[in-house]
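Input sequence (161 aa), recorded before submission:
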Amino acid sequence: MPRYEYKVVPAPTKGLKGKGVRGSEARFSFAVQELMNGMAGYGWEYQRAETLPSQERSGLTGTTTEWRNVLVFRRIRASDASEFQPELLPAPEEIAEDDSETIEPPTMGQDTKNAPLTDNGVEDTQADSSIGASLSILARARNLALRTPEADPKEDTDPKS
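Predicted structure, token format:
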């Protein structure tokens, strides 16, 4: 069953001048004709004309009922959900685990100067007095990991770097 979308536009209230169009009735008909042909150019099909009530303000506190003439158009919805066919993606390939190079974290008493940094998920409790101290310890640890053998060994012990 096709699904439609509707468009309601106000009917013309004045006629349009055109070549060979004479008289007020002919001008009004020409205005309706131009509106309907313009809508048909965008794929809208004319359905009917309606006269509907409209509540409008009158003065400061009053309301009046105005009758409005509208034209109703419809067309088949271009983006109907039943027509949508999603493309299925291929299943992901399984990646073989590479156990050739596993980095073990350093244990107590080992030389941690050349060991790679690992995160064991535990917070540093030695420097919890301030955030600045924690950040400086982290910066020092990263500098140690990136340091080359030609670097000055005195920089490793300086807590203010």
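Checked by second reader. The chain is about 25% helix and 20% strand.
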